[in-house]
Amino acid sequence: MPPYIKDSWNAHLYDQKHHFVSNFGNELIELLSPQNGESILDIGCGTGDLAHAIGKYGAHVIGIDQSANMIKQAKEKYPSLTFEEKDVLDLPYHNEFHAVFSNATLHWVKQPKQALQQMFDSLESGGRLVAEFGGEGNVQLITDELIKQLHAIGVDHPPDEFPWYFPSIGEYTSLMEEVGFHVRFAQHFDRPTPLEGSNGLQNWIKMFAQEILDNIDKDTQKGLIRKIEQQLTEDLYKNGEWVADYKRIRVIGFKEKFKK
Ligand code: BEZ
Question: Which domains does the chain have, with CATH numbers?
Fold first, then answer.
């Protein structure tokens, strides 16, 4: 989850309006193929749904998230599982997991090599990383329009303040190799993602792009979001619902036994 100092995650809104994040994660669990008795670290576990789903295979799961709000809700929902507030850039684990799993989180981490090193170190020899997150071009129609509308009201948003990391497949798999992973699978694909309800786009912006809007007063924010909706209707409003222009990267990398 994002490296903000303050915890801006609203775990209830996340569960109510953004459940698709976990729903899509179930496909990634199939790629993970958890085995009975395996120990698995779920990085960016949110409110715990995927950790719970992985646990059903008989795996021992630890879910971590940087957001205290998310961890609190995960513990309330799944009291028998282990959830801890931790940062992927500062993991205390060494050679202990059969697998590291991460869905829809690593695009918040703007030090990807450091995160990969931490995940690599957490795996036992022979262990695997299975991850999915936003790739190059992800939600670009939305973010380009957001930045355009900010400029229109005189608010500068320099590229280095862009809150996400959306790498190309070549860039990310190269980083994986640099830290020692043997990349066995990598995919970059479009996944148009329906956002629930007629307010889907504004809910998405309020949930995920709040950091960008934080210093703007509420009325101006409302006007800005309305303008973004108008501009994006033609491209993203389809058959009565908003469909976000998601583009995903999926990777599987192994910490090979024969590599150090
Ligand atoms: C994503 O899952 O691709 C995403 C979510 C929130 C903000 C940006 C990207």
Answer: 11-139+164-196+246-254 (3.40.50.150)
